């Protein structure tokens, strides 16, 4: 079976990027990491890509006329590298139809809450402020909305009495680093089917 060609979009730390690179190196993920797309030159994820020998497309949004202009440029990069799956991992920008339309069904995101609860920024803090006793992690397809696309996988994290945002963040990130490579491997194995907004995973 041919390896799935991936690109990751990230803005910051890149622990999910790292988990995916590690899973490939450890032979758990039948994919190749072809490209990092990053909008912040000082991001830790840029260093991680360099160390892993992954090409980076670093862009400065302000140097483009508008969002469509830089998304067109990103699309060109993705097409040149024949990317099969686009993986958002802490990419702090809205993605529009310029990318969503050509990649719908092949464009995924990870979000630190049990969607549809707490979309958008600071999702863990939102859950704490609301007082939910459980939060978690969601991997979903990206559509035109903010964290609204079809849900592929979710894992729960308990919010125990008195825990701080940092504790919950650590638990969430531990789960993210397991779940994201797992979901990408399901893609590699052709187990994921999207029908309307329902995602079916073939576990047989
Ligand atoms: C993760 O918590 C992810 O859920 C959210 O952004 C964070 C990125 O973390 N979308 P990292 O850059 O992968 O360490």
What is this entry, summarized?
By secondary structure, this protein is α/β, with parallel strands linked by helices. The protein has helices at 15-25, 44-52, 67-80, 97-103, 123-130, 165-188; strands spanning 4-10, 31-38, 56-58, 85-88, 107-111, 134-141, 151-158, 192-195, 198-201. 5-O-phosphono-beta-D-ribofuranosylamine is lined by residues 10, 12-16, 89-90, 110-112, 173, 176.
Please, could you describe this protein's structure?
There is one protein chain. With about 200 residues, this protein is an alpha/beta fold. The chain has a single domain (about 5-200), classed as Rossmann fold (3-Layer(aba) Sandwich), CATH 3.40.50. About 35% of the residues lie in helices and about 25% in strands. The chain has six helices and nine strands. It has helices at about 15-25, 45-50, 65-80, 95-105, 125-130, 165-190, and strands spanning about 5-10, 30-40, 55-60, 85-90, 105-110, 135-140, 150-160, 190-195, 200. The strands form two sheets. It has a seven-stranded mixed beta sheet, with helices on both faces. Strands 8-9 form a two-stranded antiparallel sheet. Helix 1 (about 15-25) links the parallel strand 1 (about 5-10) and strand 2. Helix 1 runs parallel beside helix 2 (about 45-50) and helix 1 (about 15-25) packs across helix 6.
